[in-house]
Amino acid sequence: MFKGKRYRYIVGGCIALGFTACSIPNAVEKTENKNTPASYNTSSDTANIAGIKWKEYFTDPYLAALIDTALQHNQELNITLQEIEISRNEIKARKGEYLPFVGIKGAADVEKVGRYTSQGAGDATTEIKPGKEMPDPLPNYLVAAYATWEIDIWHKLHNATKAAVSRYLASVEGRNFMVTGLIAEIANSYYELLALDNQLTIVKQNIEIQNNALEIVKVQKEATRVTELAVRKFEAEVLKTRSLQYDIQQQITETENRINFLLGRYPQPIARNDEAFGKSLPATIHAGMPSQLLANRPDIKQAELELTAARLDIKVAKAQFYPSLGISAALGYEAFNPAYLLKTPKSLLYSIGGDLIAPLVNKNAIKSAYASANAKQIQAVYNYERSILNAYVEVANQLSKMQNLQKSYDLKSQQVAALSQGINISNDLFKSARADYMEVLLTQRDALESRFELIETQKAQMNALVDIYQALGGGWN
Fold this sequence. Notes:
palmitate, membrane, 2 domains, about 10% strand
């Protein structure tokens, strides 16, 4: 008879399990596309500067010292390190969930029941010792150990742990990606500072040239070869250039302060080597193959790990539809009198039991969590594909930019050389009355602008060398 009941319970549990399994919606698992073009251009060179350590790529010792300081004291980077620590603790928490939970319990209470109740009437006739009734009111003392354990038969807890591990590794890659961005930002700001220093030097040189031209105009006026208008025009040009000098000095201050902020310190002068401008980066860039981005770019690896975690989340959500098997146990002592508390075996209590629980009705919450996990997995696929596409576009743009900037620089260098010669020629012609003062002014103005543009182009070239290093995934290793 007992065996028949047991079999009915088992059959009933199997039917419930089958009904639960049949009602699980199907997941739509999207496969990511990892394919990339064969090359960035016609070149098929596999050499890649991403493998070069940043201290070898940025050879300027002043810049290296700034980067070193930033990697230790940058607040945003340190915030990210704490997020990594949070992810690491999440792994420990998940691992603890599929181990037994054991606790110790101590309790004391007192109860007074009515004499004219079933329990009160029974207690009145119960004798612990001959001639003694059950105490009234009845105290109770308990000391016991309890344990609960969910058996991970569907790997729900193990998959949740694996998802936590993937997210931890993704946070590490996120930190690496932040490092590449921080290094690039400091390097670009440093080269901007060098460019401003060079522009300030040019302005000072131009002020000297314009002052010399002003003296010539004053002499010409005394000789009645020019009017007072020419003198005023040259004086205005000198004042304009001197005003430009203070604009550049303000830009230098702001750039220094931006670097100091990245270094996590209050404003102070930035040590630098102006002679390193345009000379401290490699002349030849090896971009390698686009497929190498998948291994070199931290943001791509981060997106891939987040996709792995999202797929594990689907398995965890799916396991919620299945029955959960739990085991509980207790062992301890319980008595109404402390004197009897440790009497063995009379005061000894123990229990062990198991339960199998499966959701049957009103599973909307579980279905919604499962659908959300599926949607997040699809979202993670698109994010991963977008990261690969974005990385390729960034590299392609920088490679094209470097080529065009070099051509632009060559032409601007010729322009500067021609206008620099034009200053001397216009001055000589003006002295011999073969050119008017406006031609001298315009030539000086054009020469100053062309030299500024040349420095801007050179700074853009250095920024492109920094950005291509970052785009290829260099700097974090």
